Amino acid sequence: MHRYLTLIALSLFLCHTAWAGEPPTIEQLVAEGMSLKDQGKFTEAEARFETALKRSPKSEIALIGLGRTYGAQGAYQKAENAFLKAIKSHPRSLPAHRFLSLTYMGSRKMAKAEKFAKKAVKLAPKDWETLHGLAEIQIARQRWDAAIKTEKKVLKIDPKNLHACTGLIRSYQSKGDYKRASKYARKATQIAPKLLEPRIKLAELYALQGKRKRGVSTLKEAETLLEGQIRRIAILATSYVFLGANENAAKLYSDYVKKNPKSAIGHAALAEIRVKQKKFKAAEKHARLSKDLDPKSPMPYQILGVVAALKRDYPNTEKYYTQAIEYAPKPLQVRLRYEFGMLLLEMKKPNKAITEFE
Asked: What is the pTM of this model?
């Protein structure tokens, strides 16, 4: 019996060895290539697709995989060639047309991008993603009326499509038709009631129509979606400031720092709002708390510098801006140095100002 089981095990092993020795299929090579692409291992990915194409030069999936790998590297000409080969061999290939369109977008050949996006739509007129892809290109080309027409087709297929609503909002707003943009912003809030961004957009559109109070009340309703997250609070507070409702913005941050007294970001944000309200004493208080909690953050020093400048306290203006610039990352340093340079001119220190502008 033991000998019999040993023979079975041996036969299974030999079968497995024979199977393992078989060359991978085209599908397996492409799957491996896509996995390597997603990991950023582009050279290895290309090798898998090229191996597949040596065995099957017209393989649709291999050509598309190779094109996508080139596209991920920004090698748009090579990507274009791969997708065109796929289309030549497979004229009705939807993914080849869609990815070629995206490739032309990447290389800023927008007319060609739209041309192949339209061909993709002809191949799949009921596919909302294909239609929305065309609309995005039309929006990028500022062809607002064409984009509106396309996004409305998306909504006919999928009446609750948030992407289409977003495209319609942008297109109508860009045309200056805030009323119709508001219509789709309201629809977006109904489709995604727990999403903050559509409500903020709706409030902004009300403000653009001169309906400030309605905009503020829309933002007020959105406060239920904040979940105590500082990022969401910052987005909503910025919108309140845009609508001139600084007190509402201040209350958001004030409530947050009461619950999170050790939040350096919260105190700095509240200090910034207090500056806008010209409540300089409160601004200094929260900026100093922020500085003590995070001594290497540039924001509290900048705020203290602004407050000092507004109070004509030029020695402290110089002191705090110098510290803000020291701790700021390079992109922010440029803006801070410009601000500081302008303040130095006001302080009648042109030589120092020139140094900051250089």
From this structure: 0.80
